[in-house]
Amino acid sequence: MRMRKKPNMPRRIEKCGGIYIGNPEDYHGKWLETFPEYKELQLEIGCGRGRFTAETALTMPETLLVAIERVREAMIIGMERAAREGIPNIRFIDTDAAMLRFIFASGEVGRIYLNFCDPWPSNGHRKRRLTHEGFLDIYKDILRADGEIHFKTDNDGLFDYSLGQFLKCGFELEDVTRDLHGGGMVGIMTDYEMKFHEQGVSINRCVARIKT
Ligand SMILES: C[S@@+](CC[C@H](N)C(=O)[O-])C[C@H]1O[C@@H](n2cnc3c(N)ncnc32)[C@H](O)[C@@H]1O
Known about the structure:
The chain has 8 helices and 7 strands; from the N terminus they run H-H-E-H-E-H-E-H-E-H-E-H-E-H-E. It is of the alpha/beta class.
């Protein structure tokens, strides 16, 4: 996501208060101990402007939803919305998904949402895809034994590639669809999803669960 640098970023982040976690490594292995009011920890990777983050958190008040985004200029929009609406069960971290093992201990996360990640179509860039096996190994490590990844994309090529990567890395697939909204709108839409849906682009979705 390319965005113009926004001025006053430190001040805007500060105004969001405890929603922003600037020292996420300190919570490693201790997320639910630190926030005992929640029963479950879930993670959204590449949350962008955080529309899905806010709306999903509102549907599950007993779950802490941590959103990761490496572009602060996008993330601040979701943070300011969560602060404005007083949504208690969201935290934001500005980092790269490659850092997740330093932030979450093995088996600490119940579910990961991966929505409309960049397709990186060139084969030379495949390691940057957030469903490349290098990333899937990290997700598998931080997920609980019964953990799952909810994956959505508009990109058919990325979807085919990702299904193969999930199987290769020891996940089994459920609820695989190539036209999620074909029979009417389903679930909470992300910002990108709204845009693609309005253009008539079909949305691919699957749930990848660690094989037991
Ligand atoms: C195409 S946008 C989709 C945003 C949002 N999920 C949505 O569906 O509206 C992909 C987002 O993933 C973020 N992203 C890409 N690679 C990332 C990485 N390695 N770590 C963290 N965020 C990443 C980008 O900065 C961007 O905001």
